[in-house]
Amino acid sequence: MNRLYILLTYLLFSSALSLGQDSTVTLRRVPRSIVKLAPLSLLDQDATVQGGLEYRTGAKTSVQAEFGYGWKGLSPFTADLDDYVKAEVWRTRAEVRFYNGRYRTNRRRDIAIKSSFPLGNYWAIEALSKRINVINQEFKWQDPSSSAKPEYVGSMRISRYVLGTHLKIGRQFAFYDPIHRSFSRTLLDIYLGAGVRWAFNDIADTGTPPHSYCGCGLGRSFTQKENQLTPSITAGLKVGFAL
Asked: Hey, what's the signal peptide range on this chain (predicted)?
C-alpha cells in the first residue's frame, strides 16, 4: 500500500512538473517595436540618411520617431546646397498612429488575420523639424597672374529652421505565409499626408559679407529674412523589421 501511495505521488508530481514546463515553453515574446529605414530620404533635395522606431502602445495605437542627418553632395540630384562651402541637414519626425485594427490578406470576405505587430490601414498626426546649416566663403584675387594667395573677404553662415505638422494616411503590410499561417517580420510602410510648415533663416556675416548665393531650392529661399508659412505635402515609403 505504501509503494502504491509513493508511486501515485511521484506520477502526480511528474505530471504537474511537465505541465508547468509546457506552459513555460509555449510563452513567446510579442514584437512591440519596429526598426525602420527611409530609403526615399536619399532622393530629397535635402538628402539625409534616415531611420526610425515604431513602438506599439495599444491594440490599435503606436508612436513613431525618426532621425536623419545629411551633408553636401549626398543628394544624387543637383541641389542648391552644392553652392556652399559646407552644408549639413538635421531632420526629426514624431507621430502618433491610429490603426483600424483589420488586415485582409486577400479580397475574400471575412478573411482577417491578427498580428502581434501593427499592420493595416492607419491615420496619423505628425510633427517635424529640420535644420539646415550652410557656410559660404569668398576670396578676392588681386592679380590672376600673381602667385600671391587670394585675399579673404568674408563668410556667411546661415541656419534655416523648419517646423511643421501633417495629417497622414497610410498602410503598413507584411508578406504572409499561408502554409505556416504567419507573417514575415519584414514590413513595408507607405503613406501620404498634407499640412503646413513654418520656416525662418538665421543669417550671420563675418567680416565683409561675401556674394550671397540664392539658396533657392524647391519652395524655399535662404536669403529671405521674414518668416515663411507655406502648405506642405509629404509622401514616402519605409522598410521595417519587427523586433
From this structure: 1-20
**Report for 11-20, 96-105, 167-176, 207-216: range of highest mean pLDDT:** 167-176
Among residues 222, 226, 166, 163, the alpha carbon closest in space to that of 197 is found at 163
What average pLDDT is seen over the chain?
A: 79
Other C-beta atoms closer than 10 Å to the C-beta of 39 total 12
Residues ≥6 apart with Cβ < 8 Å to 216: 80, 222
Q: Over the stretch 198-232, which tens digit does the pLDDT of each residue have?
A: 999 988 765 555 455 566 777 778 878 788 899 99
pTM of the full structure: 0.74
3-state secondary structure 207-220: ECCCCCCCCCCCCC
- For 116, the 3-state DSSP assignment is coil
Q: Do residues 127 and 164 lie in contact, with contact meaning Cβ atoms separated by under 8 Å?
A: yes
Q: How far apart are CA 130 and CA 165, in angstroms?
A: 12
The Cα–Cα gap between 177 and 25 comes to 23
Domain boundaries, given as residue ranges, for the chain: 30-242
CA distances from 4 to 7, 14, 79 (A): 5, 15, 88
Please give the C-alpha separations between residue 166 and each of 42, 65, 90, 178, in angstroms, as whole numbers. Answer: 21, 14, 19, 36
> In the prediction, which pLDDT does 18 show?
44
pLDDT at 20 over 70: no
